[in-house]
Amino acid sequence: MKQSVQSVYDYCRFGIAVCRQYSSGSAYPSVYLSTPLPGIPKPVFASVDGHEKYETKITTLENGLKVASQNKFGQFCTVGILVNSGSRHEAKYPSGIAHFLEKLSFSSTAQFESKDEILLTLEKHGGICDCQTSRDTTMYAVSAEVKGLDTVVNLLSDAVLQPRLLDEEIEMTRMAVRFELEDLNMRPDPEPLLTEMIHAAAYRGNTVGLPRFCPPENVEKIDRKLLHKYLQSYYCPQRMVLAGVGIEHEQLVQCARKYLLNVKPVWGASTPANVDKSVAQYTGGIVKMVKDMSDVSLGPTPIPELTHIMIGLESCSFLEDDFIPFAVLNMMMGGGGSFSAGGPGKGMFTRLYLNVLNRHHWMYNATSYHHSYEDSGLLCIHASADPRQVREMVEIITREFIQMTGTAGEMELERAKTQLKSMLMMNLESRPVIFEDVGRQVLATGKRKLPHELCELISNVTASDIKRVTMKMLRSKPAVAALGDLSELPSYEDIQAALSSKDGRLPRIYRLFR
């Protein structure tokens, strides 16, 4: 037994051919590990040459539609159509059309009788579908087996260009929208509502400040005729990208020519001349919503009554060079809830943890957000605390904004840059995320910056870049959103004065009686 173990050890360690025997007594052939096995074909490994490994291929069809793809090995692919259309384009229409179109997506079309038929068709290829709208983009996406690409592109073309928009479907959508609006006001997490409010305050009545959710008074106004009028202006090939991840580019172009090149939409010829080309006008301002938050979450461990404040300042568009320093600054601020499990990777060494949550135990939340669009951007901090401590909480946040102008420490800056790069690369491991990245970049700029290019730009950010963009940001008027019991909320003028001061402190108030 000892000898056979030693023989195996020698075989593994030195590649020695050890003579072993079959049970019949005849010997195994002597074969070295480094020698190819006789009679077995040479393996062919999947490989790519040069930049093809990273390259995003882009083709523009005769009608103006862009086709973009990124190869990724695997049995499944994600394919979708992104449209340069969202709530920011509703200035000439009742707000809420994009919200309705999101809910009406993948309903009955010219080829498919119902949503169920669409889902059954996708099921044959192990597929799922989804539609998401944001302030500037509408995205129809399908993930399915690569073999079903032809069916998927046909289905996408039909869902985007040939929806029936039946009366009963529109009525069901009205019910779904009403339910979502009720849920928005009742959910314990106020972040979606605050994000809506801060945009309304920052861009009052224009572009990205228009409501993303359909206002209750517009639910009955939106019908098929209005939807067709909107689609006629915005759903034209020049404003669309067919993006795919996990498929061959030529195959995707072939399907695009077959199903998207000479297709007449159900609403007739496009009228791109009616497109709203307004540029975002940052106004600053305040939006307040007094609301009883005492019974938001009942149960054995109810959430205490909190007041939520979000303060934002204008940053820059994602097309500007300063976008990367702002992304690093946002990562450096970080933050989160007062309870978080995990170490440095969870952002526990970011400024809003070290300077705010670790020092002020009564604060429940302090989180930094960065929203960026093609013509403007908004960097904001969301904080929440007991209603009696709102004034103190606002001062802590304004002081953090002022302290951004100080020189960032070398270790702090390197940590933020490393965290941003790792988050970028980890997110781009996911096929649907790559799809969205490819689609959005090509839709906005006509090309795609690759991950290694972005990492290089992040690495080049210096402490002086952070200081420069912060100084520029602090010259803008603040945007403020406040939700809950606002009896202790400082005036907008006081918040503006604090952000214009050297230390970020609010003007002192002397009261004779408390």
TrEMBL record:
The residue ranges of the Peptidase M16 N-terminal domain are 66-215
- Enumerate the Gene Ontology biological process terms: protein processing involved in protein targeting to mitochondrion
Short name of one Pfam family: Peptidase_M16
Q: In this protein, which residues make up the domain named Peptidase M16 C-terminal?
A: 221-420
UniProt keyword annotation of Mitochondrion present: yes
* Keyword Transit peptide listed: yes
User: Which ranges of the sequence are coiled-coil?
Assistant: none
- Please give the InterPro entries that the UniProt record associates with this protein: Metalloenz_LuxS/M16, MPP/UQCRC_Complex, Pept_M16_N, Pept_M16_Zn_BS, Peptidase_M16_C
Q: Which PROSITE patterns match?
A: INSULINASE
Going by the UniProt record, its keywords in alphabetical order are:
Membrane, Mitochondrion, Mitochondrion inner membrane, Transit peptide
Q: Which GO terms describe its cellular component?
A: mitochondrial inner membrane; mitochondrial matrix
Give GO terms: molecular function aspect only.
Answer: metal ion binding; metalloendopeptidase activity
Record's subcellular location:
Mitochondrion inner membrane; Mitochondrion matrix
Q: What is the annotated quaternary arrangement, including any partners?
A: Heterodimer of PMPCA (alpha) and PMPCB (beta) subunits, forming the mitochondrial processing protease (MPP) in which PMPCA is involved in substrate recognition and binding and PMPCB is the catalytic subunit.
Please describe what this protein does: Substrate recognition and binding subunit of the essential mitochondrial processing protease (MPP), which cleaves the mitochondrial sequence off newly imported precursors proteins.
Sequence similarity = Belongs to the peptidase M16 family.
Q: Which named protein is this?
A: Mitochondrial-processing peptidase subunit alpha
Q: Which organism is it from?
A: Sinocyclocheilus anshuiensis
Gene, per the UniProt record: pmpca
